[in-house]
Amino acid sequence: MHSRKSPGSTPAPPEITYTNCRRCGTEIAGLDGRYACGVCGWTNHYSEGYRPLPTARDDPDWTGPHCR
Q: Could you tell me if residue 45 is inside a domain?
């Protein structure tokens, strides 16, 4: 079996972060600066997070660009 990642390349776990909802003011928690308010439905754009999102290649089940 071939490993796509070298040992020790496991990314750090996401950090739980807190802010106030920009729409209703409710205190909300998110992961790495990405938020969704359960009260009013507001969400911030994914690009506002504190680190890049993983790509499809980072998924251990990814089998290639032409998989279904």
A: yes
Query: Strand 27-31 to strand 16-20: parallel, antiparallel, or no bridges (unpaired)?
Result: antiparallel
**30 burial class (0-12, 13-18, 19+ CB within 10 angstroms)?**
buried
Owning domain of residue 23:
16-52
Start-to-end CA span in the chain (Å)? 21
Residue 60 inside a domain? The answer is no
pLDDT tens-digit readout, 31-57 = 999 999 999 999 999 999 999 988 888
State the total domains in the chain: 1
